[in-house]
């Protein structure tokens, strides 16, 4: 009888830990888009209020699509809204510093790398390479390849984490 009780306890602990992992993922998603919203609202001046509102709208949509089904559509929408917010934010940062922004994400990352090293939105060479090979490549597949969807929740979460990291390094 004792081994059975131990087995039941282990199952309960396993179920509880699965629940905590699910809650942590949900919480981090919510925190992720709320953190990016807070950065946007605090970073841009009144002169760029319209752009700030547009970026905030994309981030609100990022939060709203969390329950869209099927999952591949949800992952695609999460990727799209976060990428649009990121690109718009980078362009606004460059404009605010007198740099006419480029049209592609690769060019925008290069321009951030070319800002003076002591500039608060400067991307060092390693960060630029990381975001160029990760975010830019992922974006191009999503936008330019028919019937391409993120491979699953893990790939989507990794990309959203990379976008949040880039966002927090650039938008200050």
Fold blueprint:
Layout: H1 2-43, H2 49-64, H3 71-96, H4 105-114, H5 125-144, H6 153-170
Helix pairs in contact: 1-2, 1-6, 2-3, 3-4, 3-6, 4-5, 5-6
Poorly predicted regions are 1-27
- Beta-strand percentage? under 5%
How is the quaternary structure best described? single chain
Biggest β-sheet, characterized? none
Number of helices: 6
Q: Helix fraction?
A: over 70%
Instruction: Report mean pLDDT, rounded to a whole number.
Output: 83
Describe it.
- This protein is mainly alpha-helical and 172 residues long.
- Helix 4 packs antiparallel against helix 5 and helix 5 crosses helix 6.
- The radius of gyration is 19 Å and the shape is globular.
- The N terminus is likely disordered.
Gist of the model:
The chain is mainly alpha-helical and 172 residues long.
Which short descriptors sum up this protein?
6 helices, mainly alpha, globular, 172 residues, single chain
